[in-house]
Amino acid sequence: MSDITSLTLTELIKNIKDKKISSEETTKAFIERGEKSRDLNAYITEDFSNALLKAKSFDQKPNFDLKLPGVPMAVKDLFCTNGVKTTAGSKILNNFIPPYESTVTQNIWNEGAILLGKLNCDEFAMGSSNETSFYGNVQSPIDKDLVPGGSSGGSASALAANLTPITIGTDTGGSIRQPASFTGTVGLKPTYGSCSRYGIVAFASSLDQAGPMSKDVKDCALLQEIISTYDEKDSTSIDFKRNEYSKELTNNIKGKKIGIPKEYRVDGMPKEIEDLWTKGIEYAKDCGAEIIEISLPHTNYALPTYYIVAPAEASSNLARYDGVKYGFRSKGENLIDMYEKTRSEGFGAEVQRRIMIGTYVLSSGYYDAYYLKAQKVRKLIKNDFDEAYKKVDAILTPSTPSAAFKIGEKTNDPVSMYLNDIFTVPVNLAGLPAISIPAGVDDKGYPLGLQIIGKAFDEQNILNIAYAMEEKIEFKNKITNWWIK
Amino acid sequence: MPKDNSEYLIERNDNIYEVVIGLEVHAQVTSNSKLFSSSSTTFGAEPNTQVSLVDAAFPGMLPVINEYCVKQAIKTGIGLKAQINKRSVFDRKNYFYADLPQGYQISQFKYPIVGEGTVVLDMPHGQKEVGIERLHLEQDAGKSIHDMDPQNTLVDLNRSGVALMEIVSKPDLRTPDEVSAYVKKLRSIMRYLGTCDGNMQEGSLRADVNISVRIKGSDKLGTRCEIKNVNSIKFMQMAINYEANRQVDLIEEGKTIDQETRLFDTKKNETRSMRSKEDAHDYRYFPDPDLLPLEVTDEFIEKLKADIPELPDDKKKRFIDQFKVSPYEATILVSDIDTAKYFEEVIAKMGKNQDIKLAVNWITGELFAVLNNKNLEISESPISAKNLAKLVNLIKNGTISGKIAKTIFELMMDGDKDPQIIVEEKGLKQESDPKALEALIDKIINDNREKAIEYKEGKEKLFGFFVGQAMKISGGKANPQLINDILKKKL
Sign of the CA dihedral A112, A118, A124, A129? Predict the structure, then answer.
């Protein structure tokens, strides 16, 4: 075994099941790699010693019937993990240790996986570059001082840098797909209602979805079939027939109709993105798919709609962080003073900005003009997709309007940062599944991703298309280990 | 009959004002667990022992609607003869307070579960209909305790998340007596339905009172003030009285009334401004994205309708028809479900040849007096319906006199004793043997010859003396009717 950490999940599981490597050896390898990679700042909390204990315990009584037998993995620090600090990238939760486990992570541990630690992310998942985290920005393994994307930046970085064989993130407006695209990895945002939100620190409840991030599509399918369960503890969880996505995965997509939405050809789109898209269309054709031009007329309104709906929900969701019950508290003269100090010291600038926007759009006198209108537009955006899906089985777009940018490049320009989500937010507004797969590089060699958007509950179909295209694209991520001295 | 307070008017100078009142009643839903979590709702538990992660708003915790509470709200809606909305929506009402862990209360704003309905009040001057505007479900907040620690406010979250029904009336009430009757009627209906225990001491029922005044005859509503969180009928009446007079005084002084929220100080018997309209919270209501709209089917509602017991208005009608009680008596008997149950059980246990009138008198007279004195509910009555029925029957069949019955009633209270056994043990059976009584009376007349002559000569007052003697000598057991008859014959 040359390097355990560079294996895909599927390869890793095979080796463990064939008893070529133990869970302990595997876990040790990822821990060592993690310790050497602290300059990436991918972890907020390492749980290495517990991970080793669990791995040893697995090896003593291995159960190879499980889907993730003794596989160590790290997860985004937005998932509450029983007994392990969970911060959501925020100072306001800097001492918060949940006495409960999120449904999604519980599903993973139930299949034999072992927690390595909690991965860095934008504060409360608000950001597109992992620069809003109270625990510092994350470096991309692709290049020094390059953002890994966000908000699941720690997850993307750790995955691309081989600190974890697979990971999970959350995606409210592109927080899985955009960092996957920036780091040459695969990321799936499932249909809203597919993965339980129970135990995930909420950002915008009507948009949040957990999803898998992986090195290839097959791994992604396997992790999705594990984390997607119906959960009575989440009233928005939907009880639909879930596939065994990895078993039913096929590269045969002959005759599938794939839509190309003309509205995604935005003004000022870099040539490299144009070219990537064109190439993607060719790949899809090579796989036997039929390409159909479609229209999603309200695409232009998706971003402003998103930046009303998401902050509105966030402003209310984050009201519970008030210093009264748990988390950070600042001393105050009285209750109001304590609230004000706790929240202005505990929340970072971007979170405060969004709370302000959200509070404003819900205020009496502005509600109709902003929130209510945004809800109506959201319906129109969903209708666009419904119309399109009468003609096509899936939709192909670029994942992002550009490759990864440098740390600090956009921090003073929130709007240009928000524009990063332009291709991903319509999917969240419509509650649809979408996958980002690496499909090429820009002139600096930075990865670029393609996004395949599916019908609701049709994860299998977009996984199949991604799987087929992945074979044609033959993308190889170049990781130079630049951060290891 | 209580006196007729059909009008409650305030006179100042030459102006006559009437008072317009609307109530927002908060009724705690009777259910074992909270509206969106499985924690217990038992009253009086140690602080913070009935709190789930959802109630304490831990990160990532999500509300899941308690179906039982939904059923309770719909049943209440049916009891209020109200429109049941098949689709309703939970909204978030956002504000910060230490005992509101989420930073918002889940409530229903635009689309409540129950729409317009009616409550009929039995007032001394006749029936009065009060319109119901809506009923919606919402979470209760926790409790802030300010007086247990000199430095800190303590918070108890046991109540946090408990289901409440907010029942909003139309501004149809005009007098403190109507307010009292309205609250009692709501309480009665909900207790019949088992949807709210109506316990005001424990805070299961409390109200915000909206009051405005206007010149009598005007059809324009005045500016209203809302008095928050009044937790007894007496305080509601006191608050209305104070507030209405305050408003009239302001108008008479040429001042305007500010629309505001006020508090009632029960010690000083006055209302005080809490916050003005300008300072009113902007609650930023919006649909709770953690919950889907609440949708119920016709079948679901019909099933609940089939489960609705006989309600006070129907029961009253039946009591009048079936038992020939007066409307006034019927109103008293049905006002509380346990009283109605007790009454019907007494009737059932009395068997044939029953004296319903006598039973009603004993229940609303002696029994109510005892319950009042001992501050007991009828469900805690020291005398069971079965034994009260026996007592009434003993009077009816002449075994005991009414006077003896009162003595027996006192003895029965000690452990719900059977009156028949008391009669036998104490030898309290009424003497109704005419021969024995004649012998007794002959002896009395013999012993009081002179008085008998005086009576015959016209001193009729002395008749009472002979009755008294008969009762005294018989130890109160002589049948008074027979004594009368025999005395008249013999004297």
Answer: negative
For B180, B233, B314, B320, the CA distances from B331, given in Å and listed in that order, are 15, 19, 11, 10
- Asked whether residue B450 is domain-assigned, the answer is yes
Dist CA A121 CA A115 (whole Å) = 17
Residue B224 Cα, gap to closest chain A Cα (Å): 21
**Are residue B403 and residue B300 in the same domain, yes or no?**
no
Catalytically active residues of A are 76, 151, 175
Residue A362 is nearest to which of B153, B284, B290, comparing CB atoms?
A: B284
The total number of residues shown for chain A amounts to 485
> Which CATH number applies to A4-263+269-296+383-473?
3.90.1300.10
B332 and B478 belong to one structural domain:
no
- Provide the 8-state DSSP code for A362: H
Pairwise CB contact (< 8 Å): A86 & B58? no
Do B322 and B348 lie in one domain? The reply is yes
Query: Of B373, B399, B426, at which residue does a domain stop?
Result: B426
d(CA A146, CA A409): 10
Contact list in B for residue A344 (CB cut-off 8 A) is: none
User: Is residue B482, in this structure, part of any structural domain at all?
Assistant: yes
On the question of pLDDT at B428 being above 80, the answer is no
In a domain, B252, yes or no: yes
Which residue, A25, A24, A30, is CA-closest to A43?
A: A30
**Same domain as B372, residue B267:** no
Structural domain spans, chain A: 4-263+269-296+383-473
Of the residues A97, A338, A362, the best mutation for testing chain B's interface (the one with the most B CB atoms within 10 Å of its CB) is: A362
- Bond into A151 cis (ω within 30): yes
Mark whether B44 and B132 lie in a shared domain.
Answer: yes
Closest residue to B289, CB basis, from A93, A102, A205: A205
Per-residue pLDDT, averaged over B456-474, amounts to: 84
The average pLDDT across A385-407 equals: 97
Q: How many CB pairs under 8 A join A and B?
A: 95
According to the model, what pLDDT value does residue B5 have? 61
Q: Which of B426, B461, B481 is the last residue of a domain?
A: B426
A102, B60: Cβ pair inside 8 Å? yes
All residues of chain A having their beta carbon less than 8 Å from the beta carbon of residue B60 are 80, 98, 102, 197-202
B453 touches A: beta carbon within 8 Å = no
CATH of the domain at B438: 1.10.10.410
ipTM: 0.96
The tens digit of pLDDT for each residue in B256-293 reads: 999 999 999 999 999 999 887 777 789 999 999 999 99
Sign of CA dihedral B21, B26, B27, B29: positive
Does residue B2 fall inside a structural domain? no
Count: domains in chain B: 3
Q: Whose CA is closest to A15, among A49, A60, A64, A53?
A: A64
Element (H, E) at B279: none
| DSSP class of A369 | I
Domain of residue B486 covers 434-490
Tens-place pLDDT, residues A205-255: 999 999 999 999 999 999 999 999 999 999 999 999 999 999 999 999 999
Q: Which pTM was predicted?
A: 0.92
A 302-331 near B (Cβ less than 8 A): 312-313, 315-316, 318-320, 322, 324-326
| Residues of chain A positioned with their CB less than 8 A from the CB of B94 | 315-316, 319, 362
Do B381 and B274 lie in a common domain?
no
- Tell me if A363 and B63 make a contact (CB, 8 A cut-off): no
Using CB atoms, pick whichever of A93, A206, A312 lies closest to residue B59: A93
Stretch 87-126 of chain B: residues touching chain A, C-beta under 8 Å: 92, 94, 96-98, 101-104
- Give B62's contacts in chain A (Cβ within 8 Å): 197-198, 233-235
Contact A363 B284 (CB under 8 A): yes
Q: Is residue B26 domain-shared with residue B70, that is, in the same domain? A: yes
Q: Which residues of A431-453 are buried (b: 16+ CB within 10 A; e: fewer)?
A: bbbbbbbbbbbbeeebbbbbbbb
> Is B298 found in the same domain as B317?
no
